[in-house]
Amino acid sequence: MALSPILVPFLLIPIFLGSVFAISPLKTDTLKPGQQLRDWEQLVSAGEAFTLRFFTPRESSTFLLGSGAGLRYICIWSQSDPVWVGNPTEPVSDSSGSLSIDTNGALKITRANASPIMVSPHLSLAGNVSATLLDSGNFVIRDTGRGGGGPGRVLWQSFDHPTNILLPGMKIGFNLKTKKEISVTSWTSNQVPTPGGAFRLGLDPSGANQLLVWRHGEIYWSSGILTNNGSSQLTLELSRRYNIDYEFKFHSDKRMNYFSYSVKKTKGSVSSSWFLDTLGQITVTNSFRSSTCAGGTSESSGPCKKDLKSSSAICIAEKPTACRKGTEYFEPRRGYMMDNAYYGDGLSSGISDCHGSCWRNCSCIAFQSFPRGQCHYWGKGSKFVPYDSINVEQIVYVLDSEIVKATM
Prior knowledge:
- By secondary structure, this protein is mainly β.
- 6% of the residues lie in helices and 37% in strands.
- It has helices at residues 236-242, 351-360, 400-407, and strands at 30-31, 37-38, 43-44, 50-55, 73-78, 81-85, 98-101, 107-111, 114-118, 129-133, 139-143, 153-157, 165-166, 172-175, 180-182, 184-185, 199-203, 211-215, 218-222, 246-252, 256-263, 269-276, 282-289, 294-301, 330-338, 341-343, 364-369, 375-379, 383-386, 395-399.
- The strands form seven sheets. It has a six-stranded antiparallel β-sheet.
- It starts with 29 loop residues before the first strand and ends with a helix.
- Pfam families: B_lectin.
């Protein structure tokens, strides 16, 4: 049966609108020239493992429709989590966006009263092309040939352009022909998916079989040597709880040096992802399902250890300074600071930069980090006033010694 030029709506439960939009029984995983994916529609992979749709980032991963929807991004989703963003640096300002592919193989988002946003480049060919969302989470553009039959040659794929998540089969490393490094980069904030965050996950350029996380070019964390049987600090908890093992692959040829991972076959199905967050932590998430049971695990790896006095303290590893021994911490609190406020110069790369600036300044006792990179600081002599109200969403990160003073 031929597909309609307009693709299928997806289920949406707007919390504040109190209404439900029904799912059409027709589903497709492929976008062809002449078709469009509008703001309220989705592509669904063949096995329904992934979806492709527009969204607005929120702390709770919720999203709304309509002119008040906020900045909109085209995104691949696995269950309730976004795993890839197609237009991280140029969002749509409203719900007028629609995704399409032209005969030259270019994916673009058209929108009202503005020029199109290019998701993939023009491939300088005309013919039968299509873009398909696979059950691996990869979004691929193929040349299907004049006959249009068969899967066709891959011309472009989202796996070559990772954002802040590494999926099984996705490669990170070095393209020796283009001299380009392929890595995973943290978002600026949980609300801003721009790949301008402070942290980057990639392959060790020295040739060692290990992964590194850099913080502004300085090594922040190392995985340690990874072996082909998947033994590392990243996988111990997973293997112990669900008897699931990773397989790590390090490959080198004339074209590319890269790392990728996969989950070894089990009696059930496993969904896996490695998420590099705005604090430089790698969160390994796995969900397991079989005919007899289902479960999941989520654990983080990084240089910051949760041995602080407060489990809610922000966990970013900093070097000791003349005034910080390394045992101090900043804790998120609802409330406000009084007096001695100042703003940082220019934009930062997110919360870790605000944290680092305050840490290195001996007079700084609290800070705020705003979604688009602004930092707000308070110096000694400021007073923290707790105000724990459900109507107060602004969080202040306060030095632990100042919290003690506020409770005395």
